[in-house]
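hey can u check if this looks right to u? its 130 residues, i copy pasted from the old doc so theres a chance i mangled smth
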Amino acid sequence: MDPWTFAAHAFKLPFLPMPVLVQTSILLVISNLFMTFAWYGHLKNLSGRPWWIAVLASWGIAFFEYLVQVPANRIGSQRLELAQLKILQEVITLSVFVPFAVLYMGQSLRLNHLWAGMCLMGAVWFAFRP
């Protein structure tokens, strides 16, 4: 068994029988928590340090993101089309990013963000309709 297939089986959530979409979504949320900190956390925590320190820290965090993201995509690809998997990923990314930006980074939420979110919901509808 190749390492990626092993990882996909290792990250299946065996304690509860769940549909592939639910397993994929849970793993993508966890993955996106790591990804968001890897991509943007350094703007708050390491802003006074040299850029290469931020890069090394981000790579370290991203390693853990990939440990969850790759199995999530492997599991999701069992039932979802590639476009559906990508749209799901993007919606989860923004669902994790918005609270991060507001609560952790202290950014304000504007009405434009709501409209952008509505456009994403339209993308989900189009991607998942039969």
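The CA atoms of residues 42 and 130 lie 41 Å apart.
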